[in-house]
Input
Amino acid sequence: MREAGSARCEPANVLVTGGAGFIGVNFIRYLLGRNDFDGRVINYDALTYAGNPASLADIEREWGGTRYFFVRGDVADREAVDRVLGEHAIDTIVHFAAESHVDRSIVGPEAFVRTNVTGTFTLLEAARAAWQAGGGFREGVRFHHISTDEVYGSLGETGYFTEETPYDPRSPYSASKAASDHLVMAYWHTYGLPVTLSNCSNNYGPYHFPEKLIPLMILNMLEGLELPVYGDGRNVRDWLYVEDHAAAVWDIVRGGWPGQKYNVGGGNEWENLRLVERLAEIVAERTGMSAEAIRAKITFVRDRPGHDRRYAIDCSKIGRELGWRPSVTFEEGLARTVDWYLGNGDWVREVRSGEYRRWIERNYGTREQ
Ligand code: NAD
Ligand code: TYD
Output
């Protein structure tokens, strides 16, 4: 076991991979809004169906070319990664880029292995080469890997995932994330690359791609469409407002111990069906629609194969060591999220056009129409 190095890290040039996706966009907004950071953010993103640079158009206007740079590139492309690390003198990597949707991983797992496993490996190798100095690494460099609680598998009615829970992934998505986590930790143990890792529960909030439960339900409610609940609707997820996740990542990057992993969660467990019913009430309050009419659209559909029953996170370590805790209540977060979707019709129309719609049609027929 390696000795942990210094916990304090003061990033100057931060490479955010996947910064055009849901959490990456929120993280970049959070970071450039902070007054304890005056460095530069380089957003490195391949712009798959899930990436939308328009989500950062205002950031580009305000900071483009001074503190914010967008580079289109693939994390699995070693030459392009080497180039961006060198040209922007990157000292910190915050690695969000991934294929992230469980249902897609069931239909087409290959992209998940390529981006999540090979892509993470490629970034680790590039960082190892770029940051080496003497027999070790330059001072002040850091590689933070963003992962999920889904690597731990599925819980029954009781219990929580801790940082010591053995990995037991069940979907191609969670298996690919588990593989990437193991590689990240191996680079610490084997080479001493200063890495940190976080395993977070389900996020929700603005800019969330509408293939995931909460934005999909909000938009279907607004459009009077069916609300497809998988199985019996009793699966449980632990929901965290995305800005709270951004804050946790920043706390770990700056103060987390190299070689350590941290669980991040909302302490906020909801059964899917109850969540959809609560969302119906919030959408009704904010639009004048009838909650009863919205709820009548709930349709139980075929369950997801290998559907994990319950996720729940014990995040006492990050609270104890770094003082982080969630700050946005679920009521407040859901209301903000519904308002955001109500106010951002252009964004919604854009991300639901093109490749996204074709994929939905290929794999789910006309369910969404
Ligand atoms: P997302 O699907 O919304 O965004 C992923 C981003 O990565 C997109 O901008 C996409 O263009 C980019 N990308 C995909 N493949 C790439 C490649 N090969 N090279 C470069 N860029 C590529 O995902 P998200 O929900 O923002 O999740 C971000 C990270 O957080 C992922 O690593 C995910 O596993 C993790 N995570 C997500 C959640 C959640 O609830 N969404 C919870 C815990 C952990
Ligand atoms: P999702 O947002 O895909 O996140 P994850 O699978 O990573 O937890 O799904 C959250 C929960 O909602 C999960 O239990 C599956 C369920 N779900 C539905 O019931 N209907 C849907 O249309 C979707 C997308 C998800």
In short: The pocket of thymidine-5'-diphosphate (ligand 2) is lined by residues 102, 202, 212-213, 216, 228-230, 235, 237, 272, 304 (CB under 6 Å). Residues 13-364 form a domain with the Rossmann fold fold (CATH 3.40.50.720). The chain is about 45% helix and 15% strand. The chain has one domain: 13-364.
